[in-house]
Amino acid sequence: MAEEQPAQIPPTQEPAAEGAEAKGPSKSELKKRAKEAEKAKKAAEKAAKQAELEAQKAAADVDFATEFYGKAPLNQSQSRTGRPRVQIASLNPNMDGETVLLRARVQTSRAQGNKMVFLNLRQRIDSVQALLTVTPEKVSKQMVKWTAGLQDESIVLVEGVVKKSPEIIKSATVGDVELHISQIHLVAGLESRLPFTVEDAARPETEIETNDEVQYKRVLLDTRLNNRIVDLRTQTNQAVFKLQHGISYFFREYLESKGFIEIHSPKLQGAATESGASVFKVGYFKGNAFLAQSPQLAKQMAIAADFERVYEIGPVFRAEDSNTHRHLTEFIGLDLEMVIEEHYHEVMELIDSLLKHVFKGLKEQYAKEIQAVNRQFPAEEFKWLDETLRLTFKQAVDILVEDGVDRSSLDDINTENEKRLGRLVKAKYDTDYFIVDKFPMELRPFYTMPDPEDPTVSNSYDFFMRGEEILSGAQRIHDPTLLAEKMRSKGVDPASMPAYLDAFKMGCPPHGGGGIGLERVLMLFLKLNNVRRASLFPRDPKRLEP
Amino acid sequence: MAEEQPAQIPPTQEPAAEGAEAKGPSKSELKKRAKEAEKAKKAAEKAAKQAELEAQKAAADVDFATEFYGKAPLNQSQSRTGRPRVQIASLNPNMDGETVLLRARVQTSRAQGNKMVFLNLRQRIDSVQALLTVTPEKVSKQMVKWTAGLQDESIVLVEGVVKKSPEIIKSATVGDVELHISQIHLVAGLESRLPFTVEDAARPETEIETNDEVQYKRVLLDTRLNNRIVDLRTQTNQAVFKLQHGISYFFREYLESKGFIEIHSPKLQGAATESGASVFKVGYFKGNAFLAQSPQLAKQMAIAADFERVYEIGPVFRAEDSNTHRHLTEFIGLDLEMVIEEHYHEVMELIDSLLKHVFKGLKEQYAKEIQAVNRQFPAEEFKWLDETLRLTFKQAVDILVEDGVDRSSLDDINTENEKRLGRLVKAKYDTDYFIVDKFPMELRPFYTMPDPEDPTVSNSYDFFMRGEEILSGAQRIHDPTLLAEKMRSKGVDPASMPAYLDAFKMGCPPHGGGGIGLERVLMLFLKLNNVRRASLFPRDPKRLEP
């Protein structure tokens, strides 16, 4: 069966045609002959194909590589060899000749003829080029074919030899080596079509706009978020969420070095507190509860309970129907509260040092991740000053007025004017980060301590990054009489918050603090332009999935 | 005015009485005289009091110490001297003679006559004895009187001289020095009566039970929780929540050293997932949302999104009407999930090492806090083995049967039998900590991977401390077909969780993990006997405040 049978080819019509020169065949005869010729050709092709298939089948019968490739059985923890697996990031030219084992995604595959296939293998933000070539007794044609047929995003377990690559491979992050595959097994395949490729999802907007020759697919934010699992696999997003972790890490590291302890305050509350922002209502057995819009009350109560310095990293909930680039209905608050010995600037300065510790940590220890994000989201490096610029609210208003903003519109500084202020400050001081202190009392919540001299001004501050607010904070009122008075003046019934007021009646030291939006810091540090990109599974008024 | 005026005393009646011996006064005369005498005595007393008052008033007029004591003005950040304040914990005999400034609570005060007052000053878990004595030109009688009148739990700013104390003062944690007060100001007083004293709240149950001479006030748990702010001030609770912080700290430290990153998954979910346990329903704009009962689905999705190793510390919500010593409706989950290379024991062993890292960290770095808690909650030291005891579910059942439990009741091991197992294991192996592996499939959720040999058994485990479960975990099903099949067999409609199933259809590596209840670990490590004591502001079906 393995021998090739020559396809039967009908004799050519030429001699007949020659003899028929004088008379010549009729038109219908010509048509008929052409038809027959066509038929014969098709039959020949079919026979050739058949022969090829049979040849392949024959070759398949002697596939010597079956053990070296294929679908692995479902891992149910059948066995444990303990054989080490390596990280792509650790591969380097010094390993030339070493055989390694690794698990990775197939980002792309490209066959060259039927004897060779190139794979781009990916682990998180790292990738390497791998190739498989038909080799007697080692790599069969079938093995190459099977590998070439692997769907993008398949997870494979690969054994191969590290080879120093003759020239840097630009399509991989580890470009100075390639992997010559000796074994490849499918650990997990796909049971569905990809909504978009990880390559498309990782392409910078600028490349899509400036490249006229190729029509790239643009993956819209909503499509990404609907298929967040695939979107999160881009090297950009792998880096974004490592950086998110970095922010919390440095936040904790700094505060713990300053004697803070972490607390966990309840998100379920008995009353809708801190009137103003809307709260979500929860069915709670036979009654109702409300989701905390911040750990504000709890952390102040912890201060009244002698905790001295506390922080919390946890979800906060806002039932505001705001559909903007910077609002989420659920986000992570980095909150802190501490006793004041003399002056609330003790808190403000501690928060300032804390944020600079975070910026410095990211810049120094996450350079690779920042670079990875920059490839898709180009941004000027985030800048701050050794001595942070501090403006009073009044000074900030003056700067805006000087730039042409109508003073009468500046009782509060709205989002647009905040950005303008950010640009003006950047131009003048070359910083993306500054503090505005001493906000008007009427812009702040009831628990804000008034200035000792001017009762219309408060001991409160906002911190800004690239012209957007990332932190609000203040000295709080620790005196129950003044607190109740301010509650009433802001339309809050003191009787509606008995446990909170009681905390101050039991004696509470002067204190202050602030709350930072984790996703906002991440968005603004990296200039991601939409806070949803800084949230693993973002929630907004229109999104509760995935 | 400063000179004392002798009180006017009426002449005694004695001479008249002598002369009247023969005749003797009439009964009515005697009565009248007695009345007059009484009247005169009262007048004398009144005059004496008046004189004393005037004397005091006179003395007050020349109080030379007014600057050294009194109520401080409300701190509104009027000024900032930057003068350092010390911690009680840092005071020691080498500082003998040094003048220090510190802010503290007055735990108790005890006047000795009108010239001396002893204060027990407290900062978190530390306390020191301070005394104030009338001293010419330095401490006035008025100053002593004012200080003696300070309500317990007042916050004071004290300047004083450290003195090596002649003998150890047992009522203070820093017993080898005392503080001789030169200035004392009230930073924050109380505007309400204390519901109970911090001393009463800190008293060990054993002391209340065994002491027949003194009738101590027992502060019940509900009273404590209703007035949690005061209850949290006990040295016990200050230590408990430092230890709570310690658990998270060591949890993170270990996982970060193993390449895990922290994620934050949304607590608001579009569907009520993981059927079985009840979920809280939330009004979400015009529709509904549900509170996550665990980050289970999100962390698995993070694995499908190539995060490799993730952890989360965050609130989880259980709408179960369980009113027991170990159930809360909101608690903190320490969750982790990781890719499995070959066998789920990779995860189980990592969790085991993680927990031992936590125990070791607490024991070595929080000895002082553990001791503080033990004073109120005496407990045998928590014990674990270098090589953790692992039982299979079957072995655990056998141990119970051998001890007399009816095998037919052991399809599941209930709370009572868990405790029994804990006691039996402790007696035999001298450990408070062990693992039970290979739970029956029917006891575990749909996403649990079945054993490769025996489909009635699963690749899952529970971890125990002092006979109570603190962690559940398993290898998860990463194959979407098998997952959908198991969902249906457990009565969950795969169509109700499309985003979750999609994650696996897009290719997901084998993985496993577990979830630890923070409060349970804390409760069991310290033997607090009620999980509410391990939660800052606990939530149960009957409690949403404070």
UniProtKB/TrEMBL annotation, chains A, B:
Domain Aminoacyl-transfer RNA synthetases class-II family profile residue range list: 241-538
UniProt keyword annotations, A-Z: Aminoacyl-tRNA synthetase, ATP-binding, Cytoplasm, Ligase, Nucleotide-binding, Protein biosynthesis
Domain of life, source organism: Eukaryota
Catalytic activity: tRNA(Asp) + L-aspartate + ATP = L-aspartyl-tRNA(Asp) + AMP + diphosphate
One GO term describing the cellular component: cytosol
Entries under Gene3D superfamilies matching the protein: Bira Bifunctional Protein, Domain 2, Nucleic acid-binding proteins
Pfam families per record: tRNA-synt_2, tRNA_anti-codon
Any single biological process term in GO: aspartyl-tRNA aminoacylation
Enzyme class name: ligase
UniProt GO MF annotations: aspartate-tRNA ligase activity; ATP binding; RNA binding
Keyword Magnesium listed: no
EC number of this enzyme: 6.1.1.12
Localization, UniProt: Cytoplasm
Basic and acidic residues bias locations: 20-52
Main location: cytoplasm
InterPro entries named among the record's database cross-references: Aa-tRNA-synt_II, aa-tRNA-synth_II, aa-tRNA-synth_II/BPL/LPL, Asp-tRNA_synthase_2, Asp/Asn-tRNA-synth_IIb, NA-bd_OB-fold, NA-bd_OB_tRNA
Residue span of region Disordered: 1-52
Protein name: Aspartate--tRNA ligase, cytoplasmic
UniProt lineage: Eukaryota, Fungi, Dikarya, Basidiomycota, Agaricomycotina
Gene: DPS1
